[in-house]
Structure formats: structure tokens, C-alpha cells
Design brief:
The longest helix has 14 residues. Helix 5 packs across helix 9. The protein is of the alpha+beta class. It contains nine helices and 19 strands. It binds heme C (2 copies).
């Protein structure tokens, strides 16, 4: 799977349309949740990791301790989903239905309008995993093999008549941990109790392991070393047409939420690099990075191993540099303007291309310049803090990252507000680069009149 640039652009456009200047908490969902005639889908916990990080961690905390950055602003504390004892009486189906339908009276937003049922199940399963550990799963497997497999089967498929199927998620997801702890401790029907034979920790571990038997994927990620995956490629200098030997290459390994690990190597005399023994888990993504000649960064697309795939060829191009800006072109410029109490909210998307076969490095410190209209408030550029890559100046801001040759190699998304008295706004924009495609979307102002000069791009 490749995350191509087109997708990134499409996503950015969607984000432009839906993101307000000051991101509000995703709380007010006007869509009523549909009635709960819900299919029960065996989840893949690791597929829910990204969704949990994005949608749930702000309140429930990254490890489910109820301590996310937004938690302190709520009148009801978010539940510690990662605390097994707190959650003992809830079943996965309870979690699913609370997550889907929400409980707005108690500050828990509904997700049914934003996530599919499968996404909700995966997210809930990931949240569930926060109450367990890999050690507990391993201990539980050992206990299960000795004490439970004779009746329940090694993989959870009943080995005897009258024994419930532990691989049937529709059935297992209806039971809370407390209910299962009770069955294991006290016994039920033809099942003996293990209260006198196993420690409480062993019983709990057996229950945790039994849970994994009805999931579509593992509760935790396998170790990142010792896999069979290989990512290799050639780094070539596209200005000279020669391979780039002796370059330091870094491989980043990412899950859906963050970077897990980096590995480094150096290209050989033919410009080749190779990273072996990689995990081929399809929920992981990889990208290689290098710098050339000294500090101009280059990186590949993100790639993942497809099912059954163990090798990926990932070439990277690097370039000599130039300080001549004449090849810089604005491929597309979008302006979107909305109005809100006393302010005009502006979002801009600028896609830049660079002609020629050298990376544009500007004066070494300032690479691309973007003027801004006077009076700009709440400036946000690519969601990055100002003062690093982006630096605000008297007349606008600069991007200090060198621009690499090719189409749409730079994407700038900026949002800001302008004071607006409700009657008159002169909105005049210019760009120091020729633009081939400019469009502006201005929200309807009803009876008000808006005097605007056409957004223009100086060539
Ligand atoms: C705006 C903050 C917020 C966000 C975002 C949020 N929650 Fe909650 N959630 C809460 C609060 C507050 C409660 C406690 C409600 C209560 O005590 O009745 C809660 C309760 C829950 C419960 C019920 C726990 C129980 O049994 O009492 C579940 C399950 C849950 N959230 C899952 C999720 C999932 C999954 C997500 C992400 C898809 C999510 N929440 C996102 C605030 C949030
Ligand atoms: C002698 C056979 C036998 C052994 C050994 C056994 N079980 Fe069971 N188990 C059963 C039977 C039969 C049931 C169904 C009880 C009933 O509902 O009447 C059951 C029910 C369960 C349930 C409840 C399933 C549900 O649908 O609610 C769980 C969980 C469970 N067993 C886990 C375990 C674990 C963990 C062990 C090992 C520590 C274990 N069992 C050992 C026979 C066994």
C-alpha cells in the first residue's frame, strides 16, 4: 500500500473544508445515531490504534487512564478505560454501544456518524487492550494450555460437546470480564471452578487470553525485530544521473499513532541501501529519509507490506542545489473564506512545483516567501509551531525547508482570521510565484454586500 501524494492532497482539501480556524473539540455531532441494529464484527485491535489516538485519547488518555489533555475541561471525568478493575462489569458490546451512541449528558460524544461500525469495533478493541499486557497474555496462554484446552480446544473451538465456542465474537463480546472471572473462579454447569487451583492473577490472565481467541488480530504488536521483511532501494542523484554512495539513510517504522523505531544504514558504492529483518505486519508503515548535499532532507513515500509480501523496493532521488527561484510555480491555489462573529476565517491551500533538476534552497535560511494580508490573527501554517520551519516576518511568513524538483512537491495549508466589521472587507492576495490555477470559495453572506477584488496571483 502506498500513501500517494494525491491522497494527501485530497485529504488536505477535505480538511480545509471541515476544519475551523480554532479547532473545537469534536463534540457537537448533529447527526442522531441510527437505531442499534448492529452487526457484531470481530475486531482487529491494532487497526483501531490510530482512531483511538485521534478520537479518544484527547479525553481518555493515550494509555486509557482518563487523563487526556481535554479531560480537565470536562465536568465529568472520562472513564479510565485502561483500568481493568474500573471496567470489570462492562462487556465489549456495552463499550461499542456507548461509543457509537455516546452519552452527551455525561460528556461522552457519539461516534456513530463519524466512524463505521467496524472502525468503532476496532477502536473499542484497541481501548480494551489497554487494560492488559503482553506478559499477561503470555501467562494466560500457558495457563490455558494446561487447564482449559482439553475442553475448550487449543484455539478456542470446543473440543467437547456442550462447551461454548470461545472464537465466536458475537457470543464472547456480550460477557464482561467480571462475569468470566466468576465462571473461571466458581465454575458453571459442567465446567469446574479454578478458584482453589489457580491464583487470581492466573485466572485473570486465562480470561484475558481467552478474549484474544475471538479477535481478528493480535491484542499487541509482535516485536519489531526478527521479521522477514526487506526494504531496499537505490539513492540516485537526479541532477547528475549518478548513484549516491556513502549517504546515511534512516528508516522510520510507524504505527498508526506514532514513530516506533528508526534504523540507519549507509549506501554502498552503487548507492544501494537495505534494511532487513523487518516486521511485515500490514498495520505498520515505513519511510526512508536521507539528506544531501548537507542538510536538504529527502524522504520516500510511506509504504506498508501487503499480505504475503516480504520485499519492497523504495528508490529515493536527491538533487544538487540552486538559489535561483525561477523554476518555482504555484500549481494550485485555493482560498476558502467563511464569516464568523466579527471575523473572516480564511483557509488557503498552496501547491508548489519546481521545474528543473536542482533543489531550490533560497538564501540558505529563507527558502519560500508567502505574503499575508495586514491584520492577520491566529495564523496556523501546516499545523506547525511558528519559529521552526515556518517563521513569521513583517509582511508574511517564510518556509525554510528547501523545495525539491517535481510536481506538487510542497503543500502549504494556512488558516487565519481577519477582522471583519460585517459590511466591508478588502481581501487582496498575491504570491511571489506564478500560479496556474487559482480558485476562491467565499461563503454566502446573505443580504450583506462584500466588495472583493479577485484573488490574484502575480506572475
Ligand atoms: C470529549 C471527551 C471524550 C471523548 C473524545 C471520548 N470520550 Fe469516552 N467518555 C467521556 C466521558 C466524560 C465519559 C464518562 C461518562 C460517564 O461517566 O458516564 C466517557 C465514557 C466512555 C465509555 C463508557 C465507560 C463506562 O463503561 O462507563 C466508553 C466505552 C468510552 N467513553 C469510549 C470512548 C471511545 C472509544 C472514544 C473514541 C472513539 C471516546 N470514548 C471518546 C469522554 C470522551
Ligand atoms: C471440563 C471442561 C472445561 C474446562 C477444563 C474448562 N471449561 Fe470453561 N466451560 C466449560 C463448559 C461446559 C462451559 C459452559 C458452562 C455453562 O454455561 O453451563 C464453560 C464456560 C466457560 C466460559 C464462559 C463462556 C461464555 O460463553 O460465557 C469461559 C470464559 C470459560 N469457560 C473459560 C475457561 C477457562 C479460562 C478455563 C481454564 C482455566 C476453562 N474454561 C476450563 C468447560 C470447561
Amino acid at each position: 500500500m502506498r500513501l500517494t501524494r494525491t491522497i494527501v492532497i485530497a485529504l488536505a482539501l477535505v480538511a480545509l473544508l471541515v476544519l475551523p480556524v480554532s479547532p473545537a473539540l469534536a463534540q457537537d455531532n448533529p447527526t442522531p445515531a441510527p437505531p442499534a441494529a448492529t452487526e457484531i464484527l470481530p475486531p482487529t485491535p491494532l487497526n483501531g490504534q490510530g482512531s483511538f489516538a485521534q478520537n479518544c485519547a484527547p479525553c481518555h488518555g493515550a494509555t486509557g487512564q482518563g487523563d487526556g489533555p481535554s479531560a480537565s475541561g470536562l465536568s465529568v471525568p472520562p472513564t479510565a478505560l485502561g483500568d481493568r478493575a474500573t471496567m470489570a462489569n462492562r462487556s465489549p458490546q456495552d463499550w461499542f454501544s456507548i461509543t457509537k451512541n455516546g452519552n452527551m449528558a455525561r460528556m461522552m460524544p457519539p461516534w456513530g456518524g463519524r466512524l463505521s461500525d467496524q472502525e468503532i469495533w476496532d477502536t473499542v478493541a484497541y481501548a480494551w487492550s489497554l487494560g492488559a499486557t503482553q506478559d499477561e497474555v503470555d501467562q494466560g496462554r500457558a495457563v490455558y494450555e494446561v487447564n482449559c484446552a482439553s475442553c475448550h480446544g487449543a484455539d478456542g473451538k470446543p473440543a467437547q460437546p456442550g462447551v461454548p465456542d470461545l472464537t465466536d465474537f458475537a457470543a464472547t463480546s456480550a460477557a464482561s470480564n467480571a462475569a468470566w472471572d466468576q465462571v473461571v473462579s466458581q465454575g458453571k454447569g459442567a465446567m469446574p471452578g479454578f478458584g482453589g487451583k489457580l491464583s487470581e492473577a492466573e485466572q485473570r490472565a486465562a480470561v484475558t487470553y481467552a478474549r484474544t481467541l475471538s479477535l481478528a488480530g493480535p491484542l499487541f504488536r509482535a516485536p519489531l525485530t526478527g521479521g522477514t521483511g526487506v526494504i531496499s532501494g537505490t539513492i540516485s542523484n537526479a541532477t547528475t544521473g549518478q548513484p549516491a554512495p556513502n549517504l546515511s539513510v534512516e528508516l522510520g517504522i510507524f504505527d498508526q499513532a506514532s514513530q516506533l523505531e528508526t534504523r540507519t544504514t549507509t549506501t554502498d558504492a552503487q548507492g544501494r541501501y537495505e534494511f532487513a529483518a523487518l516486521p511485515t505486519d500490514s498495520t505498520l508503515a515505513f519511510a526512508v529519509r536521507t539528506t544531501y548535499p548537507e542538510n536538504v532532507p529527502y524522504s520516500s513515500d510511506f509504504v506498508s507490506f501487503e499480505e504475503g509480501e516480504t520485499t519492497i523496493n523504495l528508490p529515493v532521488l536527491v538533487y544538487e542545489t540552486t538559489d535561483d527561484p525561477s523554476g518555482v510555480r504555484a500549481e494550485r491555489v485555493h482560498y476558502i473564506m467563511e464569516f464568523d462573529a466579527g471575523r473572516a476565517l480564511v483557509a488557503e491551500l498552496v501547491l508548489l512545483s519546481l521545474d528543473g533538476d536542482r533543489a531550490f534552497v533560497g538564501d540558505g535560511n529563507h527558502v519560500l516567501r508567502f505574503p499575508l494580508p495586514p491584520g492577520v490573527q491566529s495564523l496556523n501554517v501546516n499545523d506547525e509551531e511558528m519559529g521552526g520551519r515556518f517563521v513569521q516576518t513583517e509582511t508574511g511568513f517564510v518556509d525554510r525547508l528547501p523545495l525539491t524538483p517535481g510536481q506538487n512537491t510542497r503543500q502549504i495549508v494556512l488558516r487565519y482570521a481577519l477582522p471583519f466589521d460585517g459590511t466591508n472587507l478588502d481581501f487582496e492576495r498575491s504570491l511571489p510565484y506564478p500560479a496556474s490555477n487559482v480558485n476562491a470559495l467565499i461563503s454566502d453572506l446573505g443580504r450583506r454586500t462584500l466588495k472583493r477584488t479577485n484573488p490574484c496571483a502575480s506572475a
